[in-house]
Automatic annotation (TrEMBL):
Stored InterPro entries: Amidase (IPR000120), Amidase_CS (IPR020556), Amidase_dom (IPR023631), AS_sf (IPR036928)
UniProt source species: Mycolicibacterium confluentis
Chemical reaction(s) catalysed: a monocarboxylic acid amide + H2O = a monocarboxylate + NH4(+)
Protein name according to UniProt: amidase
Family membership: Belongs to the amidase family.
Length: 465
């Protein structure tokens, strides 16, 4: 296996190669550090790289491998989004307004280290994780490896760009309104938003009023399943035998609904390529033996303004108000926070109390189907700098039109995954989103793996790779 193939092999395959002795942990880590040094000055996917720490951890991992120790990710490098704490380095949230470095790892980082993973560095985010584009005053713009004039998405934009370019085999992301699924869509990756509470958020529990979850961006479905097995809350309901086993089993005959209808409150349109991807997926799934129908989700007509945006925007305010140097924030970030401050504690409590009613209406489609498929996004990624001179409200309106299919499922808490689906007429990745029943990541993983086997995507390489 040459170095390019190894860099794109994926975390699960690399774990097997390390366990068999076909590759060593120091060699694998050096491969990524060398690639980061060569390619990341153009992409800016990493905010900081832990080169010496990673090399020390790789040497220790190799000693454990040589001694016969076996852990799920022993010696496998991974990138961490810069909203999760890594002890000893600041969690910047894409800004210089942050406080001192944490003294403890976030719980999800602790679990990844416990499984043997080697932390390569922290990946770039938009300021306070607000936007589906990763551009900040403090750290500059992160570029999409498929087209460096465009964004990789956000807010896990650095994670998406790093994995897509072969600068990490897997990356931690977080998703409060699509922040895993959007960069996965625009970078040609598999991205999974798990069930709320599946992967720990501590010490940032209940972020954005229950909207945020942690999850992976990966090359393969198996990699995402492995991430879940390592990090999941073992007290929550899950598949017998674990998520990797669930991903390895073909799904039963499923009832699948297709929809390309925009949720109410969003002004925009779905591009022909993104619409076609959904209908092409429907045809493939019929050929694979599934029952496929066209059916729209019954979104409450005012939910964008009465349930979704208030929780998200108030969440931004909650994050901003604890920062020690708020004066350093971008004016647009301060604008979003000012809007969020208008939602009182009492009003947010009332909105959250209405979540069950909102969820019941959205979930009613699952009375008749097992999985719902939407476009991954409505259009492709924006150009770098497209929103540079706009204020908070204008930017919110414009970005919502590009990425309307994600945020509702952050409010319901149910799992959703993005599956790559070819390239558009400009050579940029297309995707579809698979939405599952609550707590049913297993079906999403199984169906995604079936699609992956029929229409492989991991062999595709962006221009910067």
């Amino acid at each position: 296996m040459d170095s390019i193939e190894l860099a794109f092999a994926g975390a699960a395959e690399q774990a097997r190669l390390l366990a068999s002795g076909a590759v060593t942990a120091p060699a694998l880590t050096d491969l990524y550090l060398d690639r980061i040094a060569r390619l990341d000055p153009e992409l800016r996917s990493y905010r900081v790289v832990f080169a010496e720490q990673a090399r020390r951890a790789a040497a220790e991992a190799q000693e454990r491998l040589d001694a016969g120790e076996r852990l799920p990710l022993l010696g496998v490098p991974i990138a961490i989004k810069d909203d999760s704490d890594v002890a000893g380095t600041p969690t910047t949230y894409g800004s210089t307004a942050h406080g001192p470095a944490p003294t403890k790892d976030a719980e999800v980082v602790r679990l990844l280290r416990e499984a043997g993973a080697i932390i390569l560095g922290k990946t770039a985010v938009p300021e306070m994780m607000i936007w589906p584009f990763t551009e900040t005053i403090s750290y500059g713009a992160t570029h999409n490896p498929w087209d460096i004039s465009r964004t990789p998405g956000g807010s896990s934009g650095g994670s998406g760009a790093a994995v897509a370019a072969g600068l990490a085999p897997m990356a931690l992301g977080s998703d409060g309104a699509g922040s895993i699924r959007i960069p996965a869509s625009w970078c040609g990756l598999f991205g999974l938003k798990p069930q709320r509470g599946r992967v720990p958020l501590a010490p940032h529990d209940d972020a954005w009023n229950g909207m945020v979850v942690n999850g992976p961006l990966t090359h393969t479905v198996e990699d995402a399943a492995l991430f879940l097995d390592v990090t999941c809350d073992k007290q929550m309901p899950g598949p017998e035998g674990g998520f990797v086993r669930a991903a390895s089993r073909p799904p039963n005959r499923l009832r699948i609904a297709l929809t390309t209808k925009l949720p109410p409150g969003v002004t925009g349109r779905v591009s022909p390529g993104h619409r076609a991807a959904v209908h092409q997926a429907g045809q493939v799934l019929r050929e694979l033996g599934h029952d496929v129908v066209e059916r729209d989700i019954d979104y409450p007509p005012t939910s964008m303004f009465t349930q979704l945006l208030p929780r998200y925007i108030r969440g931004v305010y909650d994050d901003v108000r604890v920062l020690p140097h708020q004066e350093r924030l971008d004016s647009r970030t301060r604008g979003v926070a000012r809007i969020g401050r208008m939602f009182s504690d009492a009003r947010i409590a009332k909105i959250r109390a209405a979540e069950q009613e909102f969820s019941a209406r959205v979930l009613s489609i699952f009375d008749d189907v097992d999985v719902v498929i939407t476009p991954g996004t409505a259009t492709g990624p924006s150009k770098i700098g497209a929103y540079r001179r706009l204020g908070a409200v204008s930017t919110l309106s414009l970005v919502a039109a590009r990425v309307p299919f994600q945020i509702a499922f952050n409010a319901t808490g149910q799992p959703a995954a993005v599956v790559p689906w070819g390239l558009d007429s400009s050579g940029l990745p297309l995707s579809i989103q698979l939405v599952g029943r609550p707590f049913d990541e297993a079906t999403l993983l199984s169906l995604s793996a079936e699609i992956e086997a029929d229409r492989p995507w991991a062999h595709r390489r962006p221009s910067v790779s």
